[in-house]
Specification:
alpha+beta, single chain, 6 strands
Length: 151
């Protein structure tokens, strides 16, 4: 992978105030996990682990593969933190993460997710309703794999 998309993504993350980026297909502990802040988290689950858990979803794996294939390797799927402050829902903290398509000319957000700091539970941050949606609801109502179907 060229370093240009990584550099562009790091710049975008810094501009957006995020602190971490995880590229599709990258393993924890590689250079793709970029920290813009040296603050250590004392939570049970690190942001890096939350990103890894999110990238393990079959839909995100499929989206990543589709993005790479359709762009001839010029664009990549990535997870970035869209707000460094965890969201508090019903007394529980959640990392706020987005799955994006990162290309040299732009970054496009495809979906926002909430990953439990302590539990690891994953929800979709549904912009339309303003409420978290379970993965099962998201799959039934939004049909996320339809994004990879060519017409």
């Amino acid at each position: 992978m060229s370093t240009t998309p990584r550099i562009a993504m790091v710049i975008v993350v810094v501009l957006l105030g995020g602190t971490l980026v995880r590229y599709a297909g990258e393993q924890p502990g590689t250079a793709a996990a970029v920290s813009a802040s040296s603050a250590a988290s004392s939570s049970a689950r690190s942001k890096e682990q939350a990103m890894t858990d999110l990238m393990a979803l079959p839909e995100l794996k499929e989206w990543s593969s589709f993005i790479e294939k359709e762009s001839d390797g010029k664009a990549h799927g990535a997870v970035l933190e869209y707000d460094p402050k965890p969201s508090l829902i019903n007394g529980k903290s959640y990392y706020q993460l987005s799955f994006v398509q990162s290309a040299p000319e732009a970054v496009h957000r495809l979906e926002d997710f909430l990953v439990g700091v302590d539990s690891g539970d994953i929800f979709v941050d549904d912009a339309a309703s303003g409420k978290p949606m379970t993965l099962d609801q998201w799959r039934k109502e939004k049909h996320p794999l339809d994004l990879t179907k060519t017409k």
